[in-house]
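Holo prediction. Input below; ligand is zinc ion.
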Amino acid sequence: MDIGPYSFEEFLERASAFHGNPAPGLVIGGYMVELARSRLPQRTIFDAVVETPKCLPDAVQLLTPCSIGNGWMKVINWGLYALTLYDKYTGKGVRVWLDPERLEKWPEIRAWYLKLKPAREQDKDRLLNEMRRAGGSVCGVSPVRVKIEEFKKKSRGAIEICSVCKEGYPSNDGSVCRKCQQASPYMEIES
Ligand SMILES: [Zn+2]
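Structure of the complex:
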């Protein structure tokens, strides 16, 4: 089954170029994006909500103009394999999710999704082949209305220079930048 404007093979190539490898999550995600888009009225200007940071945001970024960087995609870390595309002016949209009840016929997809076997025991060719044949048929679809007010961009306000690290930071964050206020992910290294 095609994925938007791409044949399955073309999409695997694009997924590899963008994501490093044709991850199964990206492939099923491609079908999910196209399913959601097909249920929106034509020419809808849409934004996206994605409910996991893993793989699925890249499917949205590959197939639509929505990206994290341009703010048209919001990522919520709920660990749910689900996404919504919605009219950015009205909030009316479509939520699509991977539905365990529709996976009875697709043992490899089910095992992958529910993590029923270790990654090294997965048969990736069979998994991708099931995804190609199943397309969007393994997804639930439901109309939703997004609270667009909550997603409006909040300006971060003025920029100040941090007195500790001398980088620019949003002055609303306090007297020094967040990196200098909080437990930083970076370790000190000897220079
Ligand atoms: Zn700082």
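The beta strands are 46-50, 73-75, 82-87, 92-98, 139-145, 159-161, 168-170. That is the main takeaway for now.
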